[in-house]
């Protein structure tokens, strides 16, 4: 029961959000809070069912094999390098996509605040990438 408690707490929080938003369902924010609560209840219910499924005695061997494979993948140096390379490539791709999207939106005469938000995201991504790189360089 101790392992299931976090799932139950989050399901309760989702149900409380849904209940709290019922008197305000006609408004935008009440509707948003209701669906956030609903999403929380659904997601945590699925996680709880998955937990119960894998903890059942009938699935013990499959669960251990899955856990062993996950452990091997986590400590395998080649897979760690591949994950880092994939992260680097996605970072570079998003860097150029954001810059290109800024340019296209400027050509389409989009509102300035939309272009500014994307430009700020572009700068933020660059700065965070540099900071994380220097942090990892010092740590490793």
Order of helices and strands: HHHHH
Main sheet makeup: none
Spatial extent as radius of gyration = 22 Å
Tally of individual helices: 5
**Which secondary-structure class do the elements indicate?**
mainly alpha
Query: What is the straight-line distance between the termini?
Result: 40 Å
Number of strands: 0
Helix content range of the residues, please? over 70%
Mean pLDDT reading: 90
The poorly predicted ranges are none
* Proportion of strand residues: under 5%
Shape: flat
How would you explain this protein's 3D organization?
- With 140 residues, the chain is an all-alpha fold.
- Helices cover 86% and strands 0% of the residues.
- The protein has helices spanning 5-21, 28-55, 60-75, 77-107, 112-139.
- Helix 1 (5-21) packs antiparallel against helix 2 and helix 4 (77-107) runs antiparallel to helix 5.
- The longest helix is centred in the middle third of the chain and has 31 residues, at 77-107.
- The radius of gyration is 22 Å and the shape is flat.
- The mean pLDDT is 90.
Any chance you could write out the topology, listing elements then pairs?
Blueprint: H1 5-21, H2 28-55, H3 60-75, H4 77-107, H5 112-139
Descriptive terms for the model:
140 residues, transmembrane helix, transmembrane, membrane
Summarize the structure.
This protein is mainly α and 140 residues long. Helix content is 86%, strand content 0%. Keywords: Membrane, Transmembrane, Transmembrane helix.
């Amino acid at each position: 029961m101790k392992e299931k408690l976090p799932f139950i707490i989050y399901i309760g929080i989702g149900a409380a959000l849904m209940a709290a938003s019922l008197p305000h369902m006609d408004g935008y924010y009440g509707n948003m809070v209701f669906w956030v609560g609903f999403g929380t209840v659904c997601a945590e219910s699925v996680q709880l069912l998955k937990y119960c499924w894998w903890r059942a005695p009938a699935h013990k061997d499959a669960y251990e094999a899955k856990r062993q494979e996950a452990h091997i993948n986590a400590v395998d140096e080649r897979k760690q390098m591949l994950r880092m390379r994939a992260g680097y490539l996605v970072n570079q791709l998003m860097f150029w996509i954001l810059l290109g999207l800024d340019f296209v939106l400027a050509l389409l005469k989009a509102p300035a605040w939309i272009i500014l938000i994307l430009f700020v995201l572009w700068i933020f991504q660059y700065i965070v990438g540099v900071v994380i790189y220097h942090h990892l360089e010092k740590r490793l």
